[in-house]
Amino acid sequence: IAQGNKTRSEAVSGDGVIYNIEPLKSGTFAFGSKTYKIVPEGGVRMIYTPSIWNVRDLGGWACTGGRVKYGKIFRGGHFGNITTADKATIVDWLGVVVDIDLRNNTETGGATTSPLGDSVEYYHQSLDYYANAVNTSAASARTVTVLKKIMTCVAANKPCYFHCMSGADRTGTIAYLLLSLLGVSQSDKDKEYELTAFSDEADGRRF
Q1: Segment 44-98, tens digit of pLDDT
Q2: Most buried residue, 27, 104, 129, 154, by most Cβ within 10 Å?
Q3: DSSP state letter for 55
Q4: Where do the DSSP E strands lie in 45-174?
Q5: d(Cα 78, Cα 55) in Å, to the nearest integer?
Q6: pTM here?
Q7: Backbone angles phi, psi at 29, to 5 degrees
């Protein structure tokens, strides 16, 4: 499978579904002696990483001036149980180079580096969730710091991944605020937030 300057190989199984391609961008896949061109349709880009909960690209939503670009900002759960295959998906295929960790110190275990490896910058800022993220000046300052970090990453063309434990509450709050700043509609922000309900985290109890 190839798209842009990236390639990967996968074993063919089941229905032969190809995951994690960037929408609206041409690619190819080779099987046997033939090569086929593919151009995935636009829309939500859910990322298939069985060892990490609730991963998706924030790209694709209509916003002020066009659409949020794919491949710049990713959200999801923590990397505590990440497999080698999923690490390759996050780092090599998605190109993530900054790991933004929103968990508290108890949850991180005092981590100072990213489980994704030495090539990935680790940035830690403990956050609160929902209204708690902005209900005091101190909480608001922490939230603004994270939003600025994400914007700095995008401006420097450094794809980033922000997460808490489940990639639902603190992560969802930051995603909602970020999409608000980008001018995404209320309806679409709500839809993006509720996509978390389809995660298999907690055996689907997010419903």
Answers
A1: 999 999 999 999 999 999 999 999 999 999 999 999 999 999 999 999 999 999 9
A2: 27
A3: -
A4: 45-46, 56-57, 62-63, 66-67, 73-76, 98-101, 121-124, 160-163
A5: 10
A6: 0.94
A7: -135, 140
